[in-house]
Amino acid sequence: MTTLPPLPMTRPKLTALARQKLPCSSRKIPRSQLIKEKDDIDHYLEVNFKGLSKEEVAAYRNSYKKNICVDMLRDGYHKSFTELFALMEQWDALREAARVRSLFWLQKPLEEQPDKLDYFYHYLTRAEDAERKKSFEDVYNNLYALACYFNNPEDKWVRNHFYERCFKIAQLIKIDGGKKEAEAHMHMGLLYEEDGQLLEAAEHYEAFHQLTQGRIWKDETGRSLNLLACESLLRTYRLLSDKMLQNKEYKQAIKILIKASEIAKEGSDKKMEGEASYYLGLAHLAAEEYETALTVLDTYCKISTELDDDLSLGRAYEAIAKVLQSQGNTTEAITYLKKFVKIARNNFQSLDFVRASTMLGDIYNEKGHYNKASQRFQQAFDTTVELMSMPLMDETKVHYGIAKAHQMMLTVNNYIESADLTSLNYLLSWKESRGDIEPDPVTEEFRGSTVETVSQNSEHLEELSRFPGDQKNET
């Protein structure tokens, strides 16, 4: 959005005079004092500034806001005055409502912001002049300048007012092939999107996209309007699909994301196309359409590789691993998660590293590989300690504790099964200390190797029986 500099304007006589006595006082003054001050001012002006008209005297006496309004009416800008007066009333109403809600409401009254009043006067009157001449493009440009000027959090409602005015005027412009109408649809889409009205936003963005198809129009920053239309539509469709997925409306979500994917291809932006494939793949995963999800996510994987985008590739590996895990293909899921861990580590993506390590630990824990699970959870926990993230630390600490308990369970079971005095002494010692249980120095080497061998063989046989073609991927 354009940020406008202070206006180098020639002010009407009253406002020019009124500017000399700014700022206006906002304090309440008793009527008797006002009458006395008025008489004093009149006497002072009569003695020292003979020849001043009543209007010039009034310019010193009235507020800047009142002088702006008087100038508008005196110069014949009745529509501008009506619009400004309505905006000022709404401004005061919103300010009062906000003051009631919050003791810390700091926005100044409009009469204490002469620069904003200057912008109102300058652009509203120019827009009215242009409207009288049927020069609707100039009307649009002046109203759009006001929308740009008020594009800040506290004045966004003013910006939205002028967006709506621009939209109505844009329908009357016929000489630019529809460019202004396209821009107006973009602004209205943004207005509704910020307000959470996604269906209305999508309608405007669709019109924006349709009007820019096959055009080489660019915005003031040099960006293609058609590409902006594609990005805006994709963003809105994704937000709509998120709500649909939350409501378990999987078919509708997939339908709208397929539409988004087709639009992304039209935009000739590979990254945008990849993003569309990613969200479509996740929607198929939520709908338990695993094979379709893998196909779509593989497209995202290829695009990320082509763009040499490691972070996107990591996201692709993570999503594919989730699909494979949902299918029960944990061996291949582990392979993809290890790739994800490597990318996260190499690119210093700590949160991704924690997430990938935790997912790996969960799989190993379910498969009974407690040593590997403990290692992965410990890596995740150590990383959260470095990040100083208490919620993540607490979560990974629980995972790590469970895996360590499972890991110790094998040794404890072995001692119990031995049922000899030495084993009993080790168990009693552990009960007293609650630390890591000490292995039997005589039998642990044999026992540990036997348990590890049995565990590995059972794991290997299980994978061979379920996925004969995948055992080469396990490391």
TrEMBL record:
Keyword set, alphabetical order: Cytoplasm, Repeat, TPR repeat
Biased composition (Basic and acidic residues): 459-475
Pfam families: TPR_12
Main location: cytoplasm
A GO cellular component entry from the record: sperm flagellum
TPR repeats: 354-387
Region described as Disordered: 436-475
GO BP, one annotated term: cilium movement
Compartment list: Cytoplasm
InterPro entries in the cross-refs: Bac_ResReg_Asp_Phosphatase, TPR-like_helical_dom_sf, TPR_rpt
Top-level taxon of the source organism: Eukaryota
Keyword Cytoplasm: yes
Function noted in UniProt: Axonemal protein which is implicated in axonemal and/or peri-axonemal structure assembly and regulates flagellum assembly and beating and therefore sperm motility.
Name assigned to this protein: Tetratricopeptide repeat protein 29
Organism for this UniProt entry: Theropithecus gelada
